[in-house]
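FORM 7B: Structural annotation worksheet

SECTION A. Query
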Amino acid sequence: MNDISTRSNAEIMLNCRDLTRIYSEGPQDLTVLDHLDLEVRAGERVAVVGSSGSGKTTLLNLLGGLDRPSHGEVVIGGQSLAGLGEAALGRFRNRYIGFVYQFHHLLAEFTAAENVALPLIVRGQGRKAATDRARGILDRVGMAPRSDHKPGELSGGERQRVAIARALVTDPSLVLMDEPTGNLDQTTASHILGLMDELASTTDCAFVVVTHDLSLAAHQDRTLRLDQGRLSEGGARVARAALGQRSSSRRPGR
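SECTION B. Predicted structure
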């Protein structure tokens, strides 16, 4: 496995070529992704927008190795996921990829700190060191006072912030986000965006963010639209326009 812990802004962190995913639906095949190409550099933040059912979550699952493509390949930091068996793929995900799901998927029996520390413990890190690291990340997302609470004792927005902390705790090279601010109020969402900015600039972590929130998309470096299984640059104009309209609506006298 390649060591991708040292990287520069010019490095291609994520590279997909000819990515295709076909599902069998009875006697017919359903093509969700159709020979899709994508390139994301270290430190770059890319938003993917598109209508419901366009394949955005399928794309994230392929990028993170949670699903296998029908054709094509995903390469992260020079490592092709196609060349990894299931055990090696699991280790690779744990070390280099952070996930933020649309639904938080926290373990109900564990506290917020324990949920965030779990990826480090799975990696083999000592429990105390992992928990200390988890509490530090929870503090950065504004959840330090709630770190000893279980998911059932947290609001939806709080659970999402814990999920974001869990994705970041391993210092990943690539973070995949599925509607990361969907359950957050505007103030908290702005704080999370600031944290993404900081990580992208200081660690070269790359982000791929799937979202319906065009203001969130406009905050990223690039916005791509997924339509009929292909990616295009067409989403950027719409996202910028949405952000401009939102800014105009806040001007005095409006």
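SECTION C. Observations
The beta strands are 12-25, 28-41, 45-49, 71-76, 79-80, 97-100, 174-178, 206-210, 222-227, 230-232. The radius of gyration is 18 Å.

SECTION D. Sign-off
Analyst initials: ____
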